[in-house]
Amino acid sequence: MLRIAIPNKGTLSAPASQMLRDAGYRQRTDPKDLLCRDEANNVEFFYLRPKDIATYVGSGDLDLGITGRDLLVDSGVPASELLDLNFGRATFRWAAPAGTLQSADEINGRRIATAYPGVVGRYLTDNEIKADVVRLDGAVENAVRLGVADLIADVVETGATLRQAGLVTIGDPIMQSSAILISREAGPSGREEETPAGAAQLLRRLQGVLVARNFVMLAYDVRADLLEQATGLTPGIESPTVSPLHREGWVAVQAMVQRGDAHRIMDELYDLGARAILVTAIANCRL
Ligand SMILES: Nc1ncnc2c1ncn2[C@@H]1O[C@H](COP(=O)(O)OP(=O)(O)OP(=O)(O)O)[C@@H](O)[C@H]1O
Ligand SMILES: O=P(O)(O)OC[C@H]1O[C@H](OP(=O)(O)OP(=O)(O)O)[C@H](O)[C@@H]1O
Ligand SMILES: [Mg+2]
To answer: Is the CB–ligand 1 distance for residue 240 below 6 Å?
Structure first.
């Protein structure tokens, strides 16, 4: 049975479960449950603290896990990122009271408060910076006004928490994070048979959910002499489907387009002369 670690609490928990449900897997119904067996798919889900997930996957005790990229880096565990799941997006950044620090070059010799000592430690080592890391569990934005640190390194999503605390970001993001699917790092042989049974199927299903979320199906009718121009706007993934219409000189076209581009493309198709332009959602797919 495939054994998968997923967040039991926090920002990543609900969207991770929703994505797995969308991929056809059974999920817990009680948020206090720590285990859910999906017999039909031969998968067992273990609900764990997001910070601990890389540890279980890296040791090989669990086959796969969903965690944050920043949490994986923080753990220092050598696990592989299989897929970006496109939720839980955030940046990990330096921040200090406005007017105190101008750039990341001024971090040397300062006290840095963070709940991610692994991410900060790696940055300091890579950049040969010496600084004191003050390890906290959360509410890190309070650390400077309470006097335990000169700056912080923390997750920033909207920036609202920083603003409330009178802090401003400094320099470039330390890293970009999002929820990711991880597996144990392939052994020296990198052999296919080391991948746990069912892992490829889960990966394909999650890729299907990502595509269904990001793309829509566009269908329209257009005069045959405008087909080249129209399909230039809607090239599809492989190639658009073109079918004859009963009406002489017209064809019907179907193609997948990025959800975010759909309205612009519909306007452009209409201006070109296409009609009966329809958009439908994709419930799921395997490309
Ligand atoms: N607004 C956010 N706040 C915190 N973490 C976020 C946010 N947006 C995305 N994330 C990501 O979620 C992961 C952190 O989740 P985690 O459950 O450890 O903390 P949390 O959501 O702040 O929960 P809690 O603080 O209640 O334990 C990281 O990968 C982080 O980048
Ligand atoms: O940029 P924002 O949208 O404001 O989000 C980022 C903030 O949210 C999280 O805090 P959380 O509420 O999880 O509290 P914590 O610090 O105790 O983890 C994170 O640690 C930041 O403080
Ligand atoms: Mg938090």
So the answer is: no
